[in-house]
């Protein structure tokens, strides 16, 4: 798990598939203040490219990092998104 960021909130979208991780992430970042960091925990492998693509094309958010872990024999993807405006 990343310790580089001061995580403000964690969003658990495990078990949800495209497009829901992006939709839920967008909703969660809307409620953050500038500079706050959202950790998104997902099990959908597509979330790696989907959330990166969303962050790259959305004003006001920045993808800080993405990690792939394994928990209980299942891949878990962590995304760290900062609200920039």
Helices and strands, in order, run as: EHEHEE
Structural class call reads alpha+beta
- Basic shape: globular
Strand content: 35-45%
Given as residue ranges, the uncertain stretches (5+ residues, pLDDT < 50) are none
Which fold name fills CATH's third level, the topology? Translation Initiation Factor IF3
Instruction: Count up the domains.
Output: 1
The first-to-last residue Cα distance is 26 Å
Strand order of the largest sheet: 1-2-4-3
| Strands, count | 4
In CATH terms, the superfamily is TusA-like domain
Broad CATH class: Alpha Beta
* Overall pLDDT: 94
Shape-level CATH architecture:
2-Layer Sandwich
Helix content: 10-25%
Count of helical regions = 2
Q: Indicate the radius of gyration in whole angstroms.
A: 12 Å
Described by strand count, sense and barrel closure, the largest sheet is: 4 strands, mixed
InterPro entries: TusA-like (IPR001455), TusA-like_sf (IPR036868)
GO molecular function: transferase activity
Domain UPF0033: 11-35
Keywords: Transferase
């Amino acid at each position: 798990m990343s310790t580089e960021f001061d995580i403000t909130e964690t969003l658990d979208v495990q078990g949800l598939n495209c497009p829901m991780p992006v939709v839920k992430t967008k909703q969660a970042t809307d409620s953050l203040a500038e500079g706050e960091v959202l950790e998104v925990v997902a099990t959908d492998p597509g979330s790696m490219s989907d959330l990166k693509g969303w962050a790259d094309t959305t004003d006001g958010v920045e993808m800080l990092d993405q990690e792939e872990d394994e928990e209980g024999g299942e891949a878990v993807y962590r995304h760290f998104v900062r609200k920039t405006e």
